Amino acid sequence: MRVFITGATGLIGSAVVAELLGAGHSVTALVRSDDSAAKAIAAGADTVRGSLVDLDVLRAEAERADGVIHLAFGNDFSSAEALGRNIAEESAALATLGDTLVGSGKPLVTVSGTPQAAGRPSTEDDPLPTDGPVGGRSISVNRTLELASRGVRTAAIRLPRTVHNEGDGGFAGLLTLIARQTGIAGYPGDGTQRWPAVHALDAAVLFRLALETSPAGRAWHAVADEGDQVRDIVAVIARRLGLPAESLPVENFGPIGPVFAADQPASSARTRAELGWEPTHPSLLEDLEKVQP
């Protein structure tokens, strides 16, 4: 299968590209820079220059491909306005990819976060929240899944709060970055909130399985660790960096502070049972032991 992929050179995308190539698929990666192009080519992928705002490029590559995986998202979390721009760009890009594939029967695999469920781990049946700082992403994902009724084999991989590899990535990686910048390994509230996690190499396998076999309109949970308490995550970060661990106000964590503060464990029982996915790589707490001082 010839697969067009956005976000192909990030922590998750690099793992997905390697997984697809290893399974015999060919990959065309959307790249924004010479460095990204060199990285994708070194991995064995073809490249096309562009970004999520280049809708003509997205349309042309989706038409040529046998399937599409969308992973790209802006990296500017500095303000609510910047986050809003990221969401608007992604929404337009996803709409373009989806509309291009209408009637084709081809797979379109996109990505979201795991939802929150009161008093229990969320499941694949729980709806995504469409309010809050990142609610716009959920609206785009829901619209994409609805294209199942228009001849697109859509699927959404719900990624947990931290997708990690070699001690980096996801919300835990952001906590590490903030700790390096401020000299304090901080967590919002009392730190008892739980974040699910998955190793990037395990998540990559699920993206491949969804591309190859997912029924249309389905959501899947890429969750290996159902929920680590944030204070336990930060305790490892603090020890590895030689810094104090402290509770800090939610406001200290910027526009996604409320997301950081949420208790949001998640289950992947149905995903494992129906797609045969089984994580095999280190847990988040084990992987954080690789954080360098």
Describe this structure in words.
This protein is an alpha/beta fold and 293 residues long. The chain has 2 domains: 190 residues, NAD(P)-binding Rossmann-like Domain (Rossmann fold), CATH 3.40.50.720; 97 residues, UDP-galactose 4-epimerase, domain 1, CATH 3.90.25.10. 41% of the residues lie in helices and 20% in strands. The chain is built from 11 helices and 12 strands. It has a 7-stranded parallel sheet, sandwiched between helices. The protein has a 3-stranded mixed sheet with strand order 7-9-11. It has a two-stranded parallel ribbon with strand order 8-12. Helix 2 links the parallel strand 2 and strand 3. It is globular. It starts with a strand and ends in a 6-residue tail after the last helix. 48% of the residues are buried. The model has no long low-confidence stretch (mean pLDDT 95). It comes from Herbiconiux daphne. InterPro entries: Epimerase_deHydtase, NAD(P)-bd_dom_sf, NAD(P)-dependent_oxidoreduct. This is SDR family oxidoreductase.
Q: How many domains? A: 2
Indicate the CATH architecture of the largest domain. Answer: 3-Layer(aba) Sandwich
CATH topology name of the largest domain, in short, is Rossmann fold
Number of helices: 11
- Helical content stands at 40-55%
CATH class of the largest domain: Alpha Beta
Kindly estimate the percentage of residues that lie in beta strands according to DSSP: 15-25%
Category by helix and strand content = alpha/beta
Whole-number radius of gyration?
A: 18 Å
Low-confidence stretches: none
Shape: globular
For the biggest sheet, the summary is: 7 strands, parallel
Order of helices and strands: EHEHEHEHEHEEHEEHEEHEHHH
Look at the structure and give the mean pLDDT. 95
**CATH H-level superfamily of the largest domain:** NAD(P)-binding Rossmann-like Domain
